[in-house]
Amino acid sequence: MINELMIIIFAPLIAGVIAWALDIKGVREAIGVIGAAVPLAYLVKLYPTVMGGELIQYNVTFAGFTFNFTLAPMGMIFAMIAGVVGLAAVLGIVSTARSSYEWLFALMSLTGVFGIFLSYDLLGFFIFWEIMTFGSFMMVLKYNRKASLKYFVLSVIGAYAMLVAIGIIYAKVGSFSFVEVYRAFSQDAALGMVGGATVFSRSEIALIFGLFLVAFGVKAGTFPLHVWAPDAYTETNQSYTAMFSGVLSKTGVYGFILIYMLMGYRLMAEFGAFRSAPAFGYIIAFLGGLTIIVGGLLAALQEDIRKLFAYSSISQIGYILVGIGVGTALSIEAAIFHAISHALFKGLFFLIVATIVYRTGKTTFADMGGLAEKMPFTFAMAFVAILSLAGIPPLVGFASKWVLFEAVISQNLPILGGMVFFGSAIGFVYLIRFTYAVWFGQRPTDLDDTKDAPLPLAIGMAILALLNVVFGVAPGLVARELNKVIGEEAITGTIWELNLGFGRYNALAILIYLIVGIVIAGIIYFLGAKVRKVPVTDTYQSGNPVTMEYNLTIRRNFFLPLKEALAFWLRISFDKLYRDIGSWVEDLAEVLRNYVYNGNAQSYAWYLAIVLVILAIWGV
Amino acid sequence: MMETALKALFILLYATFVGFMFMGIIRIVTARIHRRVGPPIYQPILDTIKLLSKKSNITHGVIYDFGVLYALGATILAIMFIPLGNIGVLRAYGDLILITFLLEIPMLGIMFAAMSSGNPYAGIGAQRALLTMLAIQVPLGFAIVALAEFYGTFSTYEIVMAQQVSGWSIAHLPLLLAAIAYDLVLQAMFGKEPFDIMIAPGEISLGPMVEFGGKHMGILQIQHAIALFAETLFFSNIFLGGAVVTTFASPVLNTIASLAILLVKQIAVLLVATFMGAIFPRFTIDQAAKFYWKWPTIIAALGAILASL
User: Fold this and answer.
1) pTM (two decimals)
2) Residue B147: closest CA among chain A residues belongs to which residue?
3) Most B CBs within 10 Å, among A322, A514, A536, A563, to test the B interface
């Protein structure tokens, strides 16, 4: 019998291989979409069972190792994110893919993601992690070699870190299974409390935690390991980036949650708490806070539309890490909630970017403007995405952010509270920059015949936009499922209302009163005299008549004053630090090549002689 | 249902009227400081009526119209969540963070409308408004955090009730610090000197406001009045004890007394801002950012840390 879990995991890959092998235009698109739709259909079918508390398991024995796949509620939620956003992104790829190569690797990385969320042992987790990384690496490689190498090097560092950590765990526990590992760590925690001998020493625990932090931090794009993301997100098919940023980065988030699930008790017992957060979690949360600020400020200063959203994606992941780090049931629910909304609005944003790039062929703000009139549908989608990301009620971005704010602040963590507040303002800032430069103002004449989004992209966008609105107006739908995942009634209330005990949020009331307010404003508006439409040149220009030859839009360096105010901090760049380290290594290699490996047979003979002499002295 | 609707209508009318009076007060007080006579207190109302009854209006497209409506709609939404004495429509949901966000989103509507006109002054005005917002967000965030951590709740109404027992917020040191920072932030929220960088009259031709005229400007005047009312009311509620009078037997008398007390507090907040505005010249935008990221942030962060101990 073919197992359902195997279908979920491997359907995208098989579809990708077929699409690549056939390479018939039209057919490969259809197969690709089916490949992304099948896992989603199966996930929807299994959803009630899994959320009802039943685990669906499947074991595969291969080369002496048993791989255990389990669909548990936590993995289910993340797999659903991957399924929905993956399907929307694949619809986008239908419009923007250049070759069957992209179909193969885009779907391969989707297989990797499903594998990660369904694996229930460390070995399977690692293997699928690598499949995902490979698929996404190939997607970037096709567009830009340099960006892909940067991504590759950091991913390899992350992967080795994970491998070493898994190796240590296997050596001590003797099993890869999550269940066994969890048992070993909890026993250790209990033994450690009463002062008994533990399997893992304090330093080993710290080492494993540090290694996992690096491994997951790279994939999630945590500061200061984020440097690959702006380049990799930018230099690939933008429809694929919807998946890259919306789904692939969530595997890092899932990894951090996994640290809690497997090692949480032990880490807590060993390192204690900082204020009311676990000390190890506070490290994650603080890095998350820095990620919010650094990502956000850099997003505001970008001149390339793709880069802006790449940095914005990094910034938003920071929120999720803050939620995970605080480590209460409520804050982890908030983190998963924000992971869902991040996937929804950021997936939507990258599809919008894909549409803009596809239709105009331009990527920098300097070349754009006035597209709202030409692409009304895409603009409407962008409007939803902007409101959602900026955290405007009643959209899903606000609901999740609100839960997160309250979860953090209620734990008496003022510094983190200040950081998340700053993050919400910076979100506003870079989004308005995007809005102004792309949609409004004077339109360059070469964009005059720009068309609206192609149908598959439009469908992909509409799916995500609809979910942004639905989950925003009815946040209880999500909260109810999150309670099941955590196994605790942390968020109560109805489907319209979230109640945390110390704060309440009613999205429906907000929607109703907002509509009432707009209607009142509308009545005043329509009571007034008629309006006459005027063109962009017919505005107040200090009495100086202008034509379209004048540049009326601030296209470059929109936030120049911000750049000036931050000049000191902007000089510190981790990207530059890594590049410097890279060039030092190159220099060192150069020195070695000049003096040691100089290609001279005579000197090699000398080295041989010296080694022999040393060995002889040693008495070998 | 009917009662709620009536209450909402009352809040709306009262806020609009008092907001316009506040605008008049600002003009008179500023005039007196300048040793001028100043206009009558109802002048802003006359101005608004004039704007709304203009025969000729221009538009720059759907977003231009919708942005203006959205701004007023969102302001009306915000006012419903702030407890006004004994009257409250949605005060059960009057969450600190929600209100803080709601007070900011009308600006989004104005900015969308302004930017869609394509006027370069509007563009630069939007840029300055955003950077001002970015600058104030840090002290503002810490002040809100301090409040939430001190009272252990996010409900504005519960904070007001707690102050009836334990005295005004500013009587406690951590919240006094937060209040000072928040008051400095209010200066920028009102758009008063030295932080009137975003509209900067005489420099960038009123920035985002440059293109609005006729009924669009009239609607934005109403929006401004309600926003002025909402911001002072929020400050009075969270830092100055609000007002919940229960001494009289008649609920109507209680309500009137509460509103009167709130009004005094609101005018006090307003006057502080007006005095500051009248005597300071304008900052440049990077000076404003550096200012807000220095003293108010330090004060508010200190408040937040003290409150969390």
Assistant:
1) 0.89
2) A409
3) A514
